[in-house]
Automatic annotation (TrEMBL):
This is Uncharacterized protein. It comes from Epilithonimonas xixisoli. Keywords: Coiled coil. Residues 2-36 form a coiled coil.
Length: 166
């Protein structure tokens, strides 16, 4: 092979490797940004959302309602479906409800979308009678904009909608 052809091929291989390295570096950066967001969400859950949910849980239980708070990690099911990290407050009209045998209770859930770096709120007002709604609220937040006042307001509005759904 001519020296000129060898040089051309070597240049081509070098360019391909550098493009591949750039792509890999970009993917790693994106992954680390996603990981940082998820870590930030976990911290927010631990320091802000969970304590606020515990306050509401105590009041609900004092007034005859059952409650369960669950925190779920980022996971992938066997079907390949990604579950976003979330924290959920479920509510029952019976203080002695067994949340472990039936998971279909109305709830307010804060979810972390690591791809868009947004925190959304899912509200489900459907009791066992089958009436109500379940959907993500339009408003979403960032790690920086979600504060104690907003968390309290969102939980309170959600509980009000859940409890007034006959």
């Amino acid at each position: 092979m001519k020296e000129e052809s060898i040089d051309k091929l070597n240049s081509l291989f070098s360019n391909l490797k550098s493009e591949e390295e750039k792509l890999k570096a970009s993917q790693e950066k994106q992954k680390s940004e996603e990981d940082l967001f998820v870590e930030g969400f976990k911290t927010l859950c631990k320091n802000l959302i969970d304590p606020k949910m515990q306050e509401f849980r105590r009041m609900l239980r004092q007034n005859g309602f059952g409650c369960k708070i669950t925190i779920n990690e980022d996971s992938k099911s066997g079907t390949g479906i990604n579950a976003q990290p979330n924290i959920k407050l479920q509510i029952s009209r019976n203080v002695d409800s067994n949340f472990y045998t039936n998971n279909k209770f109305p709830h307010v859930m804060f979810t972390a979308d690591k791809y868009y770096k947004k925190i959304g709120i899912h509200l489900d007002t459907v009791f066992q009678n089958g009436e109500g709604t379940a959907a993500m609220k339009e408003q979403s937040y960032t790690l920086e904009t979600l504060n104690e006042e907003i968390v309290e307001k969102e939980i309170l509005e959600s509980i009000e909608k859940i409890l007034t759904n006959k």
